[in-house]
Amino acid sequence: MATGGGRAALSLGLVLLLCALRHEVAAAQRYNAIWSFGDSISDTGNLCVGGCPSWLTTGQSPYGETFFGRPTGRCSDGRVIIDFLAEHFGLPLLPASKAGGDFKKGANMAIIGATTMNFDFFNSIGLSDKIWNNGPLDTQIQWFRQLLPSVCGKDCKNYLSKSLFVVGEFGGNDYNAALFSGRTMAEVRGYVPRVVSKLIRGLETIIRSGAVDVVVPGVLPIGCFPIYITLYGTSNAADYDGDGCLRSYNGLSSYHNSLLKRSLGSLQRTYPRTRIMYADFYSQVTHMIRAPQNFGLKYGLKVCCGAGGQGKYNYNNKARCGMAGASACADPGNYLIWDGIHLTEAAYRSIADGWLKGPYCNPPIQH
Predict the structure, then answer these.
(1) In terms of domain of life, where is this protein from (predicted)?
(2) DSSP letters for 211-279
(3) Annotated active-site positions, please?
């Protein structure tokens, strides 16, 4: 018969065993594949299949130098978020869907310049000549559906229920197209409900195809990016927040994100068996600007690859990364911002971590 002390030791042993098992189960969370949709934040080479076009600045050196040693079509010095998610779950780096090949472990439909809205929308608001609509959301969903038969034959729902889907970020380029064409902030804010609604319809299509675990990132705080601060900077201190970011541009991002979160809540209620995870790009990047050292970085708003020493941010729109007159810093691992509008590999690693374990994904991917 066990003594009091023996029983306590036995109870402690059981608790430790249960904790170990729980840890093992968490560590063993596995996906058979990852499917990614999006724009330049997550493209892993779709625009560079067969070689990067010469006009594409993000396809030139020093892009890709940190990890790949060459440009790969990723808009960073190395890996992007989707690469770190794949590595975490023991999957190969996602191949670009347009490259062909074996997609049994997933594919990346994301492409630089992608918008949420189709060309018809931009045509209807008089921006057809300003947009190079390269694989909007609907087109990426088509690419995804075309490659499914070779991956899962007739039992796709079962296969996809064990996959991780990352849909976005979408919206950034829809707003860029209008803002960079001189549309007023009030006009651009007017497009937000249509953009979010279009994204939700795309998500429904993906969920009906069999997706169960779906990560949906919001948009970034665009008012904090050197390209915006340089192009739209003012002499009025009231236009800036305490982080040095443009209030109205961040207001646009916040509006998109609050509408998206509300719509995702409704979508979650419609599809209770789906696990919809909102990835909070905005909060994390804002926190990284405010306190880079908390994320292992040194610099917040300063650009690593650009016109070194020019202006407050090393940024000159006529000498962007990949163009003549621009060069990369020697220590990109210390920087948040790579080229004025995209982030560094170091930043993307930190963001992937914040999505996997929290607190920047609700619920976190890892459960």
Answers:
(1) Eukaryota
(2) --EEEEE----GGGSHHHHHHH--S-GGGB-TTS-BHHHHHHHHHHHHHHHHHHHHHHHHSTTSEEEEE
(3) 40, 339, 342
